[in-house]
Specification:
The complex is a heterodimer of chains A (224) and B (255). Chain A contains 6 helices and 7 strands, in the order βααββαβαβαβαβ. With 224 residues, chain A is α/β, with parallel strands linked by helices. Chain A has one domain: 3-Layer(aba) Sandwich (Rossmann fold), CATH 3.40.50. The radius of gyration of chain A is 21 Å and the shape is elongated. Chain B has one domain: PPM-type phosphatase domain (Phosphatase 2c, domain 1, 4-Layer Sandwich). Chain B has a 5-stranded antiparallel beta sheet. Chain B has a 5-stranded antiparallel beta sheet with strand order 2-3-4-5-8, covered by helices on one side. A two-stranded antiparallel ribbon of chain B has the order 10-11. The relative contact order of chain B is 0.19. The chains are: A alpha/beta (224), B alpha+beta (255). At the A-B interface, loops of A face helix 4, strand 10, helix 5 and helix 6 of B.
């Protein structure tokens, strides 16, 4: 005997969804590990990077979408190439050498360009990449070309570049490099800075149509 | 009843978390033209996350488009490209006035536009920005009228108020019978479209339309309307998207 099924009992919906790769939101950290960062500053920076990972891990979409890479200087070293947050295992950073900031910036820009090409080749949608420079010093190499590359990249919307100066940083040179006003870190509030950065990345990696860059106000960690 | 139509805009989990409310809107109507034939009119819109009055903009845009298209149809007009442009202009002016009243730039009223007006054997489609209008091509294959208009970056698209000359407005008239149409906003793009191959994900729409076709009266359409909202709020859907999402489905095929 046929059992009568009312219209209301017919299941409606679909669990057959398109299998698209998660869109990616790349972020490169350019970290100054020159001799002057020795001692407490490098400890606090390491702590900050760990906090960054922990904070991103708490957001399920950011965990899948944000990709972090780290370049240290000097000498210029790719500490970690782009990885999603799960696979991002920051090593304890040491201080060594001088401050080849120009070369580090150019490296960051190249990495972003290469990553975008990889996304395109694999049909992965992506958000505008971020490049974050953190330094306490003065470039010891030629930085004019890097400054030009930053200006050109910002103008053609290739990436968004942010410069953060730690105590001792030459803010005047950072102003010449970064199109956006550089921000000065209050004391050694790396932890607060990275919490702010992860919150801003979560906002970007969630959908925000039309927003060029929707930053949270840099409150707490920056000097006005 | 020939057309069976359902449509819902549902708040995304990220908007719910920040008390933002739904900034998508959908509006639709089935009316009779002068020859007593059913005409299906639908419009959906996604208010830009960065715009202060995104919800107001999408609500206003969808309502105005439906009202003005219905008016034209009832007055005996055939919907042409020129009519769609003139309505877009009126809606632009309306949004501009709202912005002036609130003393904010017009881009605080940024929203996308997706819509259709389907008669017996002639259909008009229009779109500005991302999301997609999907139709059954007559052989039970679902195809997007246009692929979503995103810039290089996923979170950039174009909006109705971007440009008073509407260089991003796409309009097409199809001179054939369209029996099924769906509209999605970008919140469902990653679920309903295969971004790599550039094709509509067939099983997603096939599953949904299968049941829409079964509806035989207004009551059953009403049941589906509620079930559509439930579906858009399920964890399967929310695990894949945190944005506001709109889904409109209309069929005039039997099961």
């Amino acid at each position: 005997m046929d059992e009568y099924i009312s219209f209301e009992q017919i299941p409606f919906g679909s669990d057959n969804f398109a299998e698209n790769p998660e869109p990616r939101c790349p972020c490169v950290l350019l970290l100054d590990t020159s001799g002057s960062m020795g001692g407490l500053p490098i400890d606090q920076l390491n702590e900050g990077v760990r906090t960054f990972k922990q904070e991103l891990m708490q957001d399920p979409l950011a965990t899948k979408r944000v990709e972090v890479a780290i370049v240290t200087f000097g000498p210029v070293t790719v500490e970690a190439d782009f990885h999603t947050v799960h696979n991002f295992h920051p090593r304890e950073l040491d201080t060594t050498g001088d401050t080849p900031m120009g070369a580090a910036i150019n490296m960051g820009i190249e990495m972003v360009a290469r990553r975008k090409k990889e996304y395109k080749d694999h049909g992965i949608a992506y958000y505008k990449p971020w490049i974050i420079l953190i330094t306490d010093g003065v470039p010891t190499d030629e930085w004019n070309r890097a400054a030009m590359n930053v200006k050109e990249g910002e103008a053609s919307k290739k990436f968004a570049f942010f410069a953060i100066g730690v105590e001792g940083a030459n803010m005047d040179i950072l102003k010449l490099i970064s199109v956006r006003a550089p921000l000065k870190l209050k004391g050694l509030m790396f932890r607060e800075f990275f919490m702010w950065l992860s919150a801003s990345m979560k906002m970007v990696s969630g959908k925000n149509p039309g927003a060029a860059i929707n930053l949270l106000p840099p409150s707490g960690w920056s000097e006005l | 009843m020939i057309w069976k139509a359902i449509g819902q805009s549902v708040t995304g989990t990220s908007h719910a978390a920040t008390d933002k409310g739904c900034e998508d809107a959908v509006c639709y109507k089935v009316i009779k033209d002068s020859d007593n034939n059913e005409v299906l009119i639908c419009c959906a819109s996604d208010g830009a996350g960065s715009a202060q009055y995104a919800a107001l903009a999408s609500e206003y845009t969808t309502q105005q488009f439906i009202d003005k298209l219905s008016e034209k149809v009832l007055d005996g007009f055939i919907i042409t490209e020129a009519i769609v442009y003139s309505i877009a202009e009126e809606v632009y002016e309306g949004l501009k006035n709202e912005a002036d009243l609130k003393q904010v730039p017009v881009n605080e009223f940024s929203c996308t536009l997706l819509g259709c007006c389907i008669t017996d054997n002639r259909s008009a489609f229009f779109q500005i920005g991302d999301g997609a209008v999907v139709r059954n091509d007559g052989l039970d294959f679902y195809t997007a009228v246009w692929w979503p208009q995103n810039g290089e970056y996923l979170n950039t698209t174009s909006f109705l108020v971007d440009d008073p000359s509407f260089k991003d407005l796409r309009v097409t008239i199809i001179y054939e019978r369209v029996d099924e149409v769906a509209i999605i906003t970008d919140g469902l793009q990653m679920l309903a479209l295969n971004m790599d191959g550039g094709v509509v994900h067939q099983p997603f729409f096939a599953d949904l339309f299968k049941v829409v076709r079964m509806a035989e009266n207004e009551d059953e359409v009403g049941i589906l309307q509620l079930k559509l909202e439930e579906f858009l709020n399920t964890s399967q859907v929310n695990n894949r998207t945190d944005d506001d999402k709109t889904l409109f489905l209309a069929s005039r095929l039997p099961s």
